[in-house]
Write a structure and sequence with these properties.
GO terms for molecular function: oxidoreductase activity. This is Nitroreductase domain-containing protein. This protein is α+β, with helices and mostly antiparallel strands. It has helices at 25-36, 75-94, 125-133, 148-158, 171-189, 192-199, 222-225, 228-234, 237-250, 265-272, and strands spanning 48-53, 56-61, 97-106, 109-118, 163-168, 202-203, 213-214, 255-260. The chain has a 4-stranded antiparallel β-sheet, with helices on one face. A two-stranded antiparallel ribbon has the order 5-8. The chain has a two-stranded parallel sheet with strand order 6-7.
Length: 273
């Protein structure tokens, strides 16, 4: 059986106290899946499918939700699967499960099989709360620096086989990155196919749909959100978006990059984690 959230915003309202601790493992894994679907994905397309079989959750890509223009090789799709799997791991450990994973090639796609075993040990609550509190911030950042110990901790978290984290700061670096982003914005937003794909996932601010991006998430107010499609289609949106991103980058104190040695589906999943 496949699971997908039914009501918009309802999936964020998870109560740990409702975990069915005295029920069958299938019911417990179904509850844990509530955390998986809160993972981030490009345009909030939610490109995943989950199935439960005894003590296993099988994670596979939903190719009906691919971004054929902006993610032609499905790299972002598999990164999103990795994000969902990490949420599953955090939730599983909180509720006393250990988790093993296996990558399986099936019909030209990579499937991830997750096996769960009860061990009775729980991790701390802040991690599981962070899943529900996570959001994408497209607003200006505060002009303050982070402690060096925190930056080093971030690097260490990302230091695993084939992966590393690079943190850059400084005015010259900021200028170079801003220049690259400006060029990228002009290329993307002058591409008709990219704009059409983007529009398929933009929602007005009163949307009842469970996927896509409400316009307020990119700073568009209620009334204007009903005209977002017109603005993207007929206004010089490439210049508008480029100016906006240039301003946001000017307030960004750090740029964090996840680096990988390999370029394959399994690596992309690990990047997402």
């Amino acid at each position: 059986m496949w699971y997908r959230p039914k009501e918009p915003y309802e999936p964020w309202k998870i109560l740990e106290s409702e975990f069915p601790k005295d029920s069958y493992i299938e019911s417990q894994l179904k509850f844990i899946l509530k955390y998986a679907v809160l993972a981030p994905s490009t345009f909030n397309v939610q490109p995943w499918l989950f199935s439960i079989s005894k003590n296993k959750i099988i994670v596979r890509p939903d190719f009906n939700r691919t971004l054929r223009t902006s993610d032609k090789d499905n790299r972002l799709l598999y990164i999103s699967l990795g994000c969902a799997i990490k949420n599953l791991e955090i939730a599983a450990e909180y509720f006393g499960f250990s988790l093993k994973r296996e990558f399986v090639e099936s019909m030209s796609m990579t499937i991830i099989e997750l096996s769960f075993q009860k061990n009775g040990r729980k991790i701390s609550k802040p991690l599981i709360n962070a899943i529900k509190n996570r959001l994408t911030n497209r607003n200006p950042y505060e002009p303050r620096l982070l402690p060096k110990s925190l930056l080093e901790g971030i690097k260490q978290v990302g230091d695993r086989e084939g992966l590393s984290i690079l943190i850059l700061t400084g005015k010259s670096i900021k200028r170079e990155i801003t220049s690259l982003v400006e060029k990228g914005d002009m290329i993307m937003w002058n591409d008709k196919e990219f704009k059409e794909e983007h529009l398929r996932w933009v929602r007005h601010n009163l949307t009842t749909q469970h996927d896509g991006m409400p316009a307020y998430s990119v700073g568009i107010p209620l009334i204007a959100s009903f005209f977002a499609e017109f603005a993207i289609k007929y206004l010089p949106y490439a210049k508008i978006q480029s100016r906006k991103n240039k301003f946001l980058l000017s307030t960004t104190p750090y740029f964090v990059f996840i680096l990988s040695k390999n370029h394959d589906k399994e690596t992309w999943v690990k990047v997402g984690e």
